[in-house]
Amino acid sequence: MKKKESKKASFSHKFTEEELLSRLKKHFPQPWIDLKFENPYQLLVATILAAQTTDKKVNEITPSFFKKFPDPFTVANAPIEDIENAIKSVNFYKRKAKLIKECCEAVVKNHNGVIPDNMEDLVKLPGVGRKTASVILVNAFNKPAIVVDTHVKRVSQRLGLTTSNNPDKIEKDLSQFFSKENWVYISKALVLFGRYICKAKKPECKKCYLVDICPYENKNL
């Protein structure tokens, strides 16, 4: 463990924020989120469902789910069995059904059925941590936040932007490197970059516009 940490600690970036952004924008000039949604409520449900499940799978079941449960009120008033049946094809569906119901109950009780648009209120909702809250702030409200998922964690470490494995520390490191006006962009772009370019097992280094400034030692060239 100590060897790994010291190796990560040896990483150091020698690029500026502007240089990194310009290269990321060659890959993703207008980054998107793979989860399909039409409003903050839908994104909240989809993000809870997406834990340890592919976005593709979530997108397959959410249209019928939202037709049956169009808002937090219908979820809050529904029997838990109905919610479970609507999402039973995803991993840990019983746990997720419970979280979605409890979350919607809290939204109805404390926010009149309206999904909050700030970190403080979002993280108080059952099933919503900082990562989920950041996803909602960035993608549903276009508000600055930094999403730290498994892709962002890996990319940040490889680029030498952090030496930590702790999501809160990684978020802090990224918030210090990137200007706040760029948080929305990088939260979307880094997720896509990690998913499609800087992959976990076989990063697409030959296709990467960051390859010559990236300090990662085990490039796939």
- Rounded Rg: 19 Å
What are the secondary-structure elements, in order, as H or E?
A: HHHHHHHHHHHH
User: How confident overall, as mean pLDDT?
Assistant: 93
Separation of termini? 27 Å
Total beta strand runs = 0
Number of helices: 12
The major beta sheet can be summarized as: none
Globular, elongated, flat, extended or rod-shaped: what is the shape?
A: elongated
Strand content: under 5%
Helical residue percent band: 55-70%
- Helix/strand-derived category reads mainly alpha
Poorly predicted tracts of residues: 1-11
Give the structure's gist in a few sentences.
Helices cover 56% and strands 0% of the residues. It has helices at 2-9, 17-27, 40-49, 55-68, 72-76, 80-87, 93-111, 119-122, 130-140, 150-158, 167-177, 183-196.
SSE layout:
Elements: H1 2-9, H2 17-27, H3 40-49, H4 55-68, H5 72-76, H6 80-87, H7 93-111, H8 119-122, H9 130-140, H10 150-158, H11 167-177, H12 183-196
Helix pairs in contact: 2-12, 3-9, 6-7, 10-12
Keywords:
single chain; 221 residues; mainly alpha; 12 helices; 56% helix; elongated; disordered N terminus
Question: Describe it for me?
Answer:
The protein is built from twelve helices and no strands. It is an all-alpha fold and 221 residues long. α2 (17-27) packs across α12 (183-196) and α3 runs antiparallel to α9 (130-140). The longest helix has 19 residues, at 93-111. The radius of gyration is 19 Å and the shape is elongated. The two termini are 27 Å apart.
